Predict the structure.
Amino acid sequence: MECGRTVRIFITLGILIALGLEQIVAAHHRAKLAAEAVAGFRHELADNRANVQGAMVAMPKLRAEIQAQIAQVSLPPPAGSAAPPIKYPSIYFESISTASWDTAVATHALNEIPYEKARRYVEAYDVLRVFFEQERTGLAAWQDMRVFGNDSVRLTPDERRALIEQLHRYESFTYVIDMMGRAAIQACDRALQ
């Protein structure tokens, strides 16, 4: 009788030890996922920050191109003369990567990251998404203005006004990129502290 009781105690202890070891292994795995996620965030946010900075550096040149084109299109060519072709401003589009973030969300690695740190990463990725959406809006505006063709001589006065309006809209986009870019860089800097 005593022997059977001892065996049950050893079996119970063995099961408890196995469960404890399983919990330790699972906790170690979750901690490893969190550490990998943070390393991925830091690398990805540094790359995204550089891309945003590159876009912001391009905006003054883009505004100068837009202003030059507005000046050219604003003056109708003299009758019978050849006007220079419409030179549409450049487009500057930087992709923003969220692969590390998306992976961390899918693997629940965020659960193991301290709240304050996770909040800074959330903020950075949210602002970067807004920045990217603004870039897409700018791309759409750029595509819209190209419907006027390349020959400014063929533009009617209404088309000329509409093109100038589109150019001004595209110029506004460059200021939004500057504003959102500053916010994205600040959010990335906070997350990378």
Remarks:
- The first helix runs from residue 2 to 74.
